Amino acid sequence: MEYNFIWDPAKARRNIKKHGVTFELAAAIFQDPMALTIYDDEG
Q: pTM surpassing 0.70?
């Protein structure tokens, strides 16, 4: 499965300040073959 991401540069800068993570790094999780998706029914 392939994902395409488009983001706003200003929002990307805010995300780095708020979370300490770039969108590029966060988006990389979708390409990780070892990633797991776990349903959280408490959320």
A: no
